[in-house]
């Protein structure tokens, strides 16, 4: 089940490091959504979009304080008395303005003694401790109290998406308004006050817009839930739609349009939707069309806000350590001014069924491969066939054992990536989609292979084994998806908004269990109709996917969340094992990390670690590659292996009853890999394609250029994937020798967290991993220290086929064992926030009346005997000189001037809060413990980290800034078209082609 919120979250600006920061960070994810906004995944079903390490923390619409020009206006010539208004008086003036617009007149009077029941109109059915109510003004409030966490997540869902924009359809009103509302001025808070309060809450806030909703959310520590709700409710009930912020965000979104042009996957999704839907407004991109967007006025936004941001049009979901009655009373009082209004119904056109196949192709200069989607009209979220179609998607294209993966990737070796998913929004019949990445010459055979596999299902159905595996995979995913507080709030709110049933996702799992083989056969025949399929492809310039010809021929595809009771044991062979029982959720996560990755490679061995680690699951002495995948996928579990800069890893996740199986399979791939020659050759070809494709991403291109010019001798200058020459020279014998060097027990740590009994799991571990032979004493690799690689101001510039200029300003960094890494984290928070955007750089480049960039963030990379600190952004060629100058000014300023105690405390609170939030899931806790232990920080480093941050002083920050930030390496990727040059070049310029 993939609904609208999965595919079109256009402004989930998740901020992530570029590197596998070795303290507590999660594994890498791709970061640009279909509208061009950074997020967790590009499109529904898309996984692992970016090869190599290319993390970024992107900008959200935080605002610096500007002159308030809302309805009452702070301009002296208009309302002099308004300059002296209190927050209460401002709220009163705002209410008068709303009365003039005919919006939200409330008959209710708020008194200090109001009880929760005085605000409640209706109580909805609920289970366990959940409390669901509808307030008298129409606002639905869903509350899930939890006593096992100190985190609270709050999300406001507004029925304001691109499909509801009426006569302004295609202008991107919903997305534009989200930029203005989130963090903007309200009747109760100026922009600066909102930003200050958010930073005190930890800065874990964001917003996104999709086809049918806009969502605003904050996750914070339990003591701060009132402040979080106060901000969210102020955004959605009393935003002033400040004129200066409207103008600023318009320029920001224009840069977002340009940024989206550099994302082939986003362009593919737009092309597919426009082709699949002929009438329904789902065919239009959420961000809109730039020529229509630029015509949007502040008055348009005010009118849209007044018509859509109504209490009966909203759902508030709160999960975490809260008292439901206190939440109801607080929300009732804070929204009492927002009275119920007339329903604003939107009648959407019905999308007629396709009468024939549809195809579309778009050529992009930056595309290196063909990226294609083949779709079939599916069902809406409430349709009974949803469940069988979801099972069919898993059988066809989810995981390594799926039919399309085995046919197109394993047997034919004609695709780099393939996945099937069933996109089922609530507002229109969805699409059953197969998404693929491939070389242009393979398109005809890939399309024919896809159709052949579909025909096989339509003729022979699916096996009982495939059915049960798919069902268990869905159910396991459901269990895994309820682990964190934020996910719980998201599930409640989205389920209710989509179906009117807060427990829809719970009932979904039960209905999946009822799917029969006959159901899957029936839906395959009914919906996967070849003569009515939609095909869209984005292709390299000058190449053709052959889409049209192929289609025509086919008609003649905070700390409480941190583990506190973990224990460490050591096996006789030196393997360290960390165990943490947690019986809240019925699953177990296993994370094995060892010293390896790029750190272990010589210049001649580039890419060896990545290929060795990835092929651990390609076959063992007793299991084939397919049998390894089947073993865990058949029980709904997962198994993955890979390599990063400092480590290799093998990770598994299973339901608790399958722990013994997971331990057996994991130990088998770690101890007994055979690196079959056929799999080695397949992986080589796949890696060569990935190497060719990696510079499609502007961040990857920029960071690769920086590292090759920053590091002189350290292995970090190498690409994780290696070079074409090094990969072409890899053989089975080479991998076996590198495996013997890298995969050894005395340099590895296994963390097992979840629902198990320690006394029962220890014998399993000893039996499975005890035979792993030790090779001698533990020793870290001998590498040159390179934390001071910049000794003068230097500039490196490269021409690029992107349409925007990429800029990275890098400086010296710290070794991961340096105790001052916490100081550098605080410095990072001051400059640009932690986990989510904020800080000085964001205010200077996107705050107030600034619209110079869409994305900007600073981050530290602290590695083994090497590190750097840098600022990354993307901007226009026109603004490049000014943006670069502002970045240098702020780096100079933090060296020159001590930060205030208030700013210091806010930064430390932000670092600690984000640290706690990042470690809420068991998977993150296990990964943190394993990585920190194997790198010598200690498995309990995450427990000690908050106290280390609290000890940081303003003097520490300034002293470290003076030591690290004086000399800088500036790296630019400059667009070839239009052909322009930066004026006034810096003293030293090294051109790299």
TrEMBL record:
Highest taxon above the source species: Bacteria
A Pfam family recorded for this sequence: Peptidase_M16_C
Cited InterPro entries: Metalloenz_LuxS/M16, MPP/UQCRC_Complex, Pept_M16_N, Peptidase_M16_C
GO molecular function: metal ion binding; peptidase activity
Residue ranges occupied by any Peptidase M16 N-terminal domain in the UniProt entry: 146-287, 576-723
Protein name per UniProt: Zinc protease
Record domain Peptidase M16 C-terminal: where: 297-473, 730-909
This protein's UniProt keywords: Hydrolase, Protease
Region (Disordered): 1-40
Keyword ATP-binding (UniProt): no
Residue stretches of biased makeup (Basic and acidic residues): 1-28
NAD keyword on record: no
The family this protein is said to belong to: Belongs to the peptidase M16 family.
BP GO annotations: proteolysis
């Amino acid at each position: 089940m993939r609904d609208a919120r999965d595919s079109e979250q256009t402004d989930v600006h998740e901020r992530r490091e570029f590197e596998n920061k070795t303290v507590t960070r999660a594994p890498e994810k791709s970061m640009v959504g279909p509208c061009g906004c950074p997020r967790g995944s590009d499109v529904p079903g898309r996984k692992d979009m970016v090869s190599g390490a290319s993390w970024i923390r992107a900008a959200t619409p935080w605002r610096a304080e500007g002159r308030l020009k809302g309805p009452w206006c702070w301009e002296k010539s208009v309302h002099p008395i308004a300059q002296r208004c209190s927050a209460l008086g401002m709220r009163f003036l705002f209410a008068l303005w709303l009365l003039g617009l005919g919006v939200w007149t409330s008959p209710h009077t708020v008194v200090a003694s109001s009880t929760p029941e005085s605000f409640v109109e209706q109580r909805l059915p609920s289970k366990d401790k959940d409390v669901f109510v509808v307030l008298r003004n129409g606002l639905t409030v869903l509350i899930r109290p939890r006593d096992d966490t100190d985190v609270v997540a709050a999300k406001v869902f507004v029925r304001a998406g691109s499909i509801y924009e009426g006569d302004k359809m295609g202008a991107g009103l919903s997305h534009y308004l989200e930029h203005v509302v989130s963090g903007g001025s309200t009747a109760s808070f100026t922009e600066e006050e909102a930003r200050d309060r958010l930073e005190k809450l930890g800065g874990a806030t964001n917003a996104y817009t999709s086809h049918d909703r806009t969502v605003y959310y904050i996750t914070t520590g339990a003591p701060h839930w009132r402040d979080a709700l106060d901000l969210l409710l102020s955004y959605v009930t009393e935003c002033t739609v400040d004129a200066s912020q409207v103008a600023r965000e318009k320029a920001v979104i224009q840069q977002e349009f340009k940024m989206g042009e550099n994302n082939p996957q986003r362009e593919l999704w737009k092309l597919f939707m426009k082709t699949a839907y002929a009438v329904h407004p789902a065919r239009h991109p959420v961000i809109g069309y730039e020529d229509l967007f630029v015509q949007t006025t502040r008055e348009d936004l005010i009118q849209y806000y007044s018509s859509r941001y109504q209490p009966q049009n909203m759902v508030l979901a709160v999960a975490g350590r809260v008292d439901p009655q206190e939440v109801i009373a607080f929300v009732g009082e804070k929204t009492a001014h927002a009275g119920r209004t007339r329903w604003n119904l939107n009648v959407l056109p019905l999308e007629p069924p396709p009468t024939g196949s549809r195809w579309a192709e778009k050529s992009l200069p930056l595309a290196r491969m063909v990226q294609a989607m083949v779709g079939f009209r599916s069902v809406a979220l409430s349709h009974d066939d949803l469940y069988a179609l979801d099972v069919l998607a898993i059988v066809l294209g989810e995981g390594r054992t799926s039919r399309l993966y085995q046919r197109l990737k394993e047997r034919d070796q004609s695709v780099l990536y393939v996945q099937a998913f069933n996109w089922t929004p609530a507002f229109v019949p969805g699409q059953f989609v197969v998404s693929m990445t491939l070389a242009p010459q393979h398109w005809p055979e890939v399309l024919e292979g896809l159709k052949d596999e579909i025909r096989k299902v339509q003729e022979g159905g699916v096996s009982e084994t495939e059915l049960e595996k798919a069902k268990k995979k869905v159910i396991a995913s459901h269990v895994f998806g309820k682990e964190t507080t934020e996910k719980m709030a998201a599930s409640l709110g989205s389920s209710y908004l989509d179906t009117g049933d807060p427990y829809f996702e719970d009932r979904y799992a039960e209905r999946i269990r009822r799917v029969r083989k006959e159901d899957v056969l029936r839906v395959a025949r009914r919906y996967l109709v070849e003569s009515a399929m939609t095909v869209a492809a984005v292709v390299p310039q000058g190449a053709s996917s052959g889409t049209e010809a192929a289609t025509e021929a086919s008609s003649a595809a905070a700390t409480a969340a941190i583990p506190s009771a973990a224990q460490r044991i050591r096996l006789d062979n030196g393997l360290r094992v960390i165990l943490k029982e947690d019986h809240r959720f019925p699953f177990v996560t296993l994370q094995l990390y060892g010293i390896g990755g790029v750190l272990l490679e010589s210049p001649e061995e580039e890419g060896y670690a990545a290929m060795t680690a990835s092929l651990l699951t390609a076959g063992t002495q007793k299991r084939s590659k397919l049998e390894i995948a089947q073993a865990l996928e058949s029980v709904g579990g997962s198994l993955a292996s890979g390599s990063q800069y400092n480590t290799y890893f093998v990770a598994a996740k299973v339901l608790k009853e399958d722990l013994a199986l997971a331990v057996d399979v994991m130990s088998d791939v770690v101890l007994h890999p055979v690196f079959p020659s056929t799999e080695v050759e397949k992986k080589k070809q796949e890696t060569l394609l990935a190497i060719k494709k990696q510079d499609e991403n502007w961040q990857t291109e920029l960071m690769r250029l920086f590292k090759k010019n920053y590091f002189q001798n350290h292995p970090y200058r190498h690409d994780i994937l290696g070079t074409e020459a090094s990969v072409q020279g890899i053989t089975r014998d080479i991998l076996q020798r590198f495996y013997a060097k890298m995969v050894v027990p005395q340099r590895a740590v296994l963390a097992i967290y979840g629902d198990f009994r320690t006394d029962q799991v220890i014998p399993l571990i000893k039996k499975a991993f005890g035979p792993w032979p030790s090779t001698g004493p533990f020793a870290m690799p001998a590498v040159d220290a390179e934390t001071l690689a910049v000794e003068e101001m230097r500039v490196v510039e490269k021409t690029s086929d992107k349409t925007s200029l990429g800029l990275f300003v890098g400086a010296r960094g710290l070794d991961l064992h340096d105790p001052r890494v916490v100081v550098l984290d605080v410095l990072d928070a001051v400059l640009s926030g932690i986990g989510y955007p904020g800080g000085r750089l964001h205010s200077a480049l996107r705050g107030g009346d600034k619209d110079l960039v869409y994305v900007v963030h600073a981050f530290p990379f602290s590695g083994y005997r090497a590190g750097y600190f840098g600022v990354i952004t993307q901007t226009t060629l026109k603004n490049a000189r000014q943006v670069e100058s502002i970045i240098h000014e702020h780096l100079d300023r933090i060296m020159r001037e001590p930060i205030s105690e208030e700013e210091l405390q806010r930064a430390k609170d932000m670092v600690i809060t984000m640290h706690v939030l990042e470690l809420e899931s068991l998977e993150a806790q296990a990964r943190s413990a394993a990585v920190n232990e194997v790198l010598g920080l200690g498995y309990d480093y995450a427990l000690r980290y908050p106290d280390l941050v609290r000890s940081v002083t303003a003097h520490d920050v300034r002293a470290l800034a003076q030591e690290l930030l004086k000399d800088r390496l500036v790296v630019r990727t400059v667009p070839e078209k239009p052909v322009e040059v930066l004026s006034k070049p810096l003293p030293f310029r090294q051109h790299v082609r």
